[in-house]
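Consider the following assembly input.
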Amino acid sequence: MKQFVVIGLGRFGSSVAKTLYKLGYDVLGIDINEEIVQSLVDSITHAVQADATDENTLKALGVRNFDVGIVSIGDDIQASILVTLILKDMGLKYVVAKAQNDLHAKVLYKIGADRVVFPERDMGIRVAHNLVASNILDYIELSPDFSIVEIQALPEWYDKTLRELQMRVKHGLNVMAIKRNEDVIVSPGAEDFIKKGDILVVVGQNKDIEKLEKHI
Amino acid sequence: MKQFVVIGLGRFGSSVAKTLYKLGYDVLGIDINEEIVQSLVDSITHAVQADATDENTLKALGVRNFDVGIVSIGDDIQASILVTLILKDMGLKYVVAKAQNDLHAKVLYKIGADRVVFPERDMGIRVAHNLVASNILDYIELSPDFSIVEIQALPEWYDKTLRELQMRVKHGLNVMAIKRNEDVIVSPGAEDFIKKGDILVVVGQNKDIEKLEKHI
Ligand SMILES: Nc1ncnc2c1ncn2[C@@H]1O[C@H](COP(=O)(O)OP(=O)(O)OP(=O)(O)O)[C@@H](O)[C@H]1O
Ligand SMILES: Nc1ncnc2c1ncn2[C@@H]1O[C@H](COP(=O)(O)OP(=O)(O)OP(=O)(O)O)[C@@H](O)[C@H]1O
């Protein structure tokens, strides 16, 4: 089973570490801040206080035996780059690193990071789309042209079937699921009704979605 | 047209502000740090240097005339709470605030925040699921039991139709779209083939997805 080492246990790093542990995987967490380490001892396999830029410390912790490394150090860009380099040098198969900006990301890729993530930036995009049309509860980019959105059913859609609403023909949107309270109706049929309070999960082109956003 | 004020232009706040502006909305950005303000003057309608906890300053900037407020101040929890309170007192219809932890979120809701977001935590969950099965490119929770995942097509699925693969019957998963290079095939039919390099966007129960994650 894959083993994960998470270096930098801030808001993002600790969320990755805890989720992996909950899914049943072994997780070693490392942070330079003793208080943060103490707060995580019961939520991951091992939590260790250490300065991850010290290569001998990482070797002593057996970090080279891990399959996947996550470097989620924020403000200290130099430390983030150095730790990523050390992990790749030690031979970890897959290293993911969090970046502060595009330049930081470029350097991380150059020194061997397998993937670079921008947690705050990506969430900012999703929240902005959500604010533009309050009926749009979530917005997930699939590709430059397509997205998935969760739309609160409009009053004019209540008690109508998908066939009557002609979502595909009129709005260019494909309804993939309907969330009704705690239930989810997956791949609804043309004769399924929309009820008040329903949330439609639709996929479509961004230009069709933006047209609907303006209309809502 | 809705007008937005974003207070705290860190990684998350600036992403929200820039995205709203790109979508064609008026955006006022406020930050206590002059350098950050300067870096955004060309990307949003107005960028102003100010301490947002000073009520008179916010009044002088006409913040009460905005429809939606976003408070994305991080480390200074007291400032985040104070600014959220001031915005609601001024009568803004909808205020979203970013929280550092559950306690902070509880206080924000108590003083009137309409929505509280945890950008780092939510992205941590998505990245963790992605790491568990490297074929899972994205993981979006729809409800406690259902999720949308993007799965890199497995070699055993190449050149087979969806009917042959029986995704629904065998894995309990509904294929909503197929990403092939820059194209997206929405609501694929039973006779559509899977090709090498395809990414399937599927919706299903978390227990079925986790079964597939272990199998990949
Ligand atoms: N050299 C290091 N070795 C180990 N941990 C480190 C090192 N440098 C920083 N850290 C830890 O990395 C964590 C994340 O860093 P920081 O708080 O700067 O980033 P952040 O982007 O604000 O984090 P987040 O948004 O995830 O909360 C902190 O808990 C910090 O103690
Ligand atoms: N009183 C205030 N008035 C206006 N801006 C403020 C105030 N206090 C803090 N800020 C600004 O809020 C922004 C975000 O705060 P901070 O960097 O502490 O949070 P963060 O959670 O690390 O941000 P992010 O993760 O979005 O980068 C900073 O740019 C900071 O200058």
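Chain B has nine helices and eleven strands. Ask yourself how this observation constrains the way the partners meet.
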